[in-house]
Specification:
Elements: E1 11-15, H1 19-30, E2 34-38, H2 42-62, H3 67-75, E3 77-79, E4 91-94, H4 100-111, E5 119-122, H5 129-133, E6 142-147, E7 156-161, H6 167-179, E8 183-188, H7 195-211, H8 217-227, H9 234-241, H10 243-256, H11 267-274, E9 311-313, H12 318-330, E10 335-336, E11 346-349, H13 356-362, E12 370-373, E13 382-387, H14 393-403, E14 409-413, H15 421-437, H16 443-454, H17 462-467, H18 469-483, H19 492-500
Parallel strand pairs: 1-2, 1-4, 2-3, 4-5, 5-6, 7-8, 9-10, 9-11, 11-12, 13-14
Antiparallel strand pairs: 6-7, 12-13
Length: 508
């Protein structure tokens, strides 16, 4: 088959006029391509054209495009009534229901219509491209072209090569993606492709730690937004996307990876899905949208004043201890300087991937006076502390009052290996490392895709540069030791680079 799509006069077909199909049609038309748009429901195509016209009008009002460009783009979108009218297309993109049988039947039908050099692309978000193409006579011309919703806003597009996809097909789609104004990344076929794999770490680890009774939904969201720097908390995100969309995709990825523990679904999500608590679309999810959304936790300024107890800081993690001491000095707190705390001191520990209990026992401290502090993330916007199961309430109150004395919010959690943010970020980095290790995508494309597709403050491998690859390895190793769960085992990509002291983005 021909490998290069024409630079001028390219005619593409888009099958499916729902949210994704109409978005793809819009960016293709503004990118200079003629779009033949079809759907089994003719009224859906009519609605799609009207929606695109409104979207372009908003862009014109903002000054992004002028009237001429708007008119030209709309003129390139041609509604068609049936698949047979796509015969002239050199590229056809299907954006129909996420059902394998439906997609396979559609592609088989298309092969009897389009020319031999027409590329057939699927916008699937979770189904294997290799499997979709397996019923085709020419699977070598089939590839994934996964856009993100809303398409005109989200710049990322994943180009996925199936096992039999010709390299030239992926190269042609990379070029088309750029012409559509997107940022394409090249990926080998894998469950969840790239972005959806990494996204599981953010939401699943959050769900697991809430299931363990460590923190509330609002606690987790506040910490991940304000301390770790994410745009939305994981439960806010789940409510926006909808559990009916997220959880089935999670379950599918888990099954397709033959029950890889890193992708193990959460009972918490399944039970809420069964209850119909889907998120914003049902007015109730992790939060109640019939009323004001649950407020994020705020600093509790009540309790025993911090000055009631002398303060001692463990040096078991020297770098983390130094951060904590700097903060305490800024808060005008006098710190004991002995190797061991006095008999009444509030004992502050700074574990990485460990919990307050193990820190107390391992360091020979009185667990009734121990409070752990997460110093890995921004201490200027929100601080996270946790107690052992036996920490005296007066010591916990003292720590809480101390850390919110300058008006910064404090989140208090139950004991957990890795706190909240350490756990979630370490899992994001580990899954990114697994994708790199399997050569599903290049290290640079992994970080690029996650920042564009998910809006994280760093790509999964970039967190290694921001926090230290060795630090992330220690967090994972300590969590695995405490839980005995293989979901926390570190990937060799991460392990080797941490041991060598090089960036997780190093490509070999």
């Amino acid at each position: 088959m021909g490998s290069v799509l024409p630079k001028d006069g390219l005619v593409i077909g888009v099958i499916g006029a729902g949210a994704m199909g109409r978005g793809i049609a819009q960016v293709a038309a503004t990118g200079g391509m003629t779009v033949l748009l079809t759907d089994t429901r003719p009224e859906a195509v009519t609605d799609a054209v009207k929606s695109i016209e409104k979207a372009l009008a908003r862009l014109k009002e903002k000054g992004t495009i002028d009237q001429g460009a708007m008119d030209q783009a709309l003129g390139r979108i041609k509604p068609v009534q049936n698949l047979e009218q796509l015969a002239e297309c050199r590229l056809v993109i299907e954006a129909v229901i996420e059902n394998l049988d439906v997609k396979q039947a559609l592609l088989a039908q298309l092969e009897n219509i389009v020319s031999g050099d027409c590329i057939i692309a699927s916008n699937t978000s979770s189904l294997s491209i290799t499997t979709i193409a397996s019923k085709c006579r020419h699977p070598e011309r089939v590839a994934g072209f996964h856009f993100f919703n809303p398409v005109p806003v989200m710049k990322l597009v994943e180009v996925i090569d199936g096992l039999q996809t010709l390299p030239a097909v992926g190269e042609a789609l990379m070029d088309v993606g750029k012409r559509m104004g997107r940022e394409p990344v090249r990926i080998k076929d894998a469950p969840g492709f790239l972005v959806n794999q990494v996204g599981r770490a953010y939401t699943l680890e959050a769900a697991h730690l809430v299931s363990e009774g460590i923190a509330t939904f609002a606690d987790v969201d506040a910490v991940m937004r304000e301390a770790a720097g994410f745009r939305m908390g994981p439960f806010e995100l789940l409510d926006l996307v909808g559990l009916d969309v997220n959880h089935p995709a999670t379950d599918a990825i888990y099954r397709q990876f033959y029950h890889e523990p890193r992708y193990r679904p959460s009972v918490l999500m399944q039970s809420r899905l069964d209850a119909g608590l889907l998120g914003r679309k049902t007015k109730r999810g992790f939060y109640d949208y019939n009323e004001q959304k649950d407020a994020a936790p705020v600093a509790d300024e009540k309790g025993t004043p911090a000055s009631s107890y002398p303060v001692w800081v463990s040096n078991a993690e020297p770098e983390q201890a130094a951060k904590l001491i700097a903060l305490l000095k800024a808060l005008n707190v006098k710190i004991e300087d002995g190797a061991k705390p006095s008999s009444s001191a509030l004992c502050l520990v700074t574990p990485l991937g460990d919990d307050a209990t193990h820190s107390a026992v391992e360091q020979g401290l009185d667990a009734k006076r121990v409070v752990a502090v997460d110093t890995l993330f921004d201490l200027g916007k929100r601080r996270t502390i946790m107690s052992t199961p036996v920490t005296d309430s007066s010591y916990l109150d003292a720590a809480r009052a101390l850390f919110c004395s300058d008006g910064v919010a404090v989140t208090v959690t139950r004991d957990s290996p890795g706190f909240i943010a350490q756990r979630i970020v370490a899992m994001i980095a580990n899954i990114g490392a697994s994708i790199a290790q399997h050569r599903t995508a290049s290290a640079s494309d992994i970080d690029k895709a996650v920042k564009l597709g998910l809006g994280y403050p760093h790509g999964p491998l970039g967190f290694g540069d921001a926090l230290g690859a060795g630090t992330l390895l220690k967090i994972l190793n300590n969590m695995q030791q405490r839980y005995g769960d293989p979901r926390y085992r570190s990937n060799l990509w991460l392990t080797r680079r941490a041991e060598l002291g090089v960036s997780l983005t190093l490509q070999d």
